[in-house]
Amino acid sequence: MKNRLAHLVCLAGLMVCAGLVCATPAVAAPEASKIARRWQLDIEFHDLERVSVTLPGDNKPTAYWFMLYTVTNNTGEDIEFYPTFDLVTSTLQVIPAGEAVSPTVYDILRERYSKLYPFFRDPIRVHGKLLQGEDHARTSVAVFRDFDPKADSVTVYIAGLSGEFAKAANPMFDPKKPESSDNPRFFPLRKTLAVTYDIPGDEVTRAASTPIRRLREWIMR
């Protein structure tokens, strides 16, 4: 049941991002407010990069993608900060940050950026109450395992930056069955930052290419 619900939530999220979720063909998906209606954290990030790491015991390097970021709380109140980062490819592969990522990767990135970010934290240590002001800003990194080589673009979805919520109709809801966690009528949506990149080159040359940022926008996902 949990796997099916996760699949439904993922599908609904992708359809909302494409503007396809609706109760009827005439009802559009909820849109994120352009002016924050609730608390909203400030984020600065380095664009998506690729890194190759030879893990202990391996003879050849493994590719990962990462996004360094700093979050600052200028909301006027302390905020419980629990971010999530998902990378979705143009081939609809969904990769959560941290999934199948060796701790060695974080060690290497921490060392590489130690001078630029002396207070760099591992992702798990970013979680928790975020106090107000630049002195309490937190810097960390979202790391993703390598994705489908056929993908020509990817979008990184960053949730946990806003207190704005909405709901969308479940396009797979079966009215003939009781409403339940396995058959929800609606999905909760959070205001989420979406950052889309084009991935130049083909399957062979992609390792040497640099992702090109195409779009940064707030959506409900």
Structure, described:
The chain contains two helices and twelve strands; from the N terminus they run αββββββαββββββ. By secondary structure, the protein is mainly β. The protein has a single domain, classed as Immunoglobulin-like. The strands form three sheets. Strands 5, 6, 9, 10, 11 and 12 form a six-stranded antiparallel beta sheet that branches. Strands 1, 2, 3 and 8 form a four-stranded antiparallel beta sheet that branches. It has a two-stranded antiparallel ribbon with strand order 4-7. It starts with a helix and ends with a strand. The N terminus is likely disordered.
Present the secondary structure layout.
Elements: H1 2-17, E1 42-45, E2 49-53, E3 62-72, E4 79-81, E5 84-89, E6 94-96, H2 103-112, E7 128-130, E8 138-145, E9 153-159, E10 165-169, E11 186-198, E12 212-220
